Amino acid sequence: MRENPMTDEKMLVLKKMHLAPYMQIATVLICKTRHGGGNMFRHQLDTMATLIDYGYVDSVLIKASVVHDVLEDVLDFNHNALLSLDFESHAVYELVREVTRTSTEEKHEFLIRVFQHGSWNAKVLKVADRISNMVSLGFVSNRAFIRRYCDETERYVFPIAEVVDKEMLKELQRLVISRRKHLALEERVEADKVYTDSADFL
């Protein structure tokens, strides 16, 4: 079990942070539903909670986590609304841009870009984002999607986590193992059912 990384000093940093304006921006994602249920607004806050869980309290990183999907998921989003929130808005905006896949990038190209050229904060944010996504994957029933997402995580996100945070890497590894075990169990149950149905027919 991990030790609690949240010291009194770090909690004081959080206490002084003004997140409400960023949360207000993120509410545009409430209408964006997710494969496994819930919506993208909740995912932003879950990503933030993951960062705090691992002891990250950098204000630009935390603020960016709250709005990290707005540029990619809201086509008509007015970026000036994000740029005018506070004295850190420009830095937050640049970090969000780093973790936003462009219209010309394939998913693997985007993840490689973050790994090879992303800032430290961009890498940490991407790993926290993927942890949240992998947890939600437990509520997804599309086996091909689950398998593909696990493969993508192993190939492209594990290396990012390896660089920035070994503990986050361990959680990602556990999540991938868990999802693959669940897939294998479902496939065994289905195979047994097909065998039983065939035997009944004969």
- Radius of gyration over C-alpha positions, nearest whole angstrom: 19 Å
Count of separate DSSP helical elements:
11
Q: Please identify the top-level CATH class.
A: Mainly Alpha
Shape: globular
Low-confidence stretches: none
CATH topology: Hypothetical protein af1432
Mean pLDDT: 92
Proportion of residues in helical segments: over 70%
Structural overview:
With 202 residues, the chain is mainly α. It has one domain (8-201): Hypothetical protein af1432, CATH 1.10.3210.10. The chain has eleven helices and no strands. The protein is globular and about 70 Å long.
From the structure above, extract its key features.
single chain, 202 residues, mainly alpha, Hypothetical protein af1432
Please give a quick description of this structure.
The chain is mostly helical. Helices cover 70% and strands 0% of the residues.
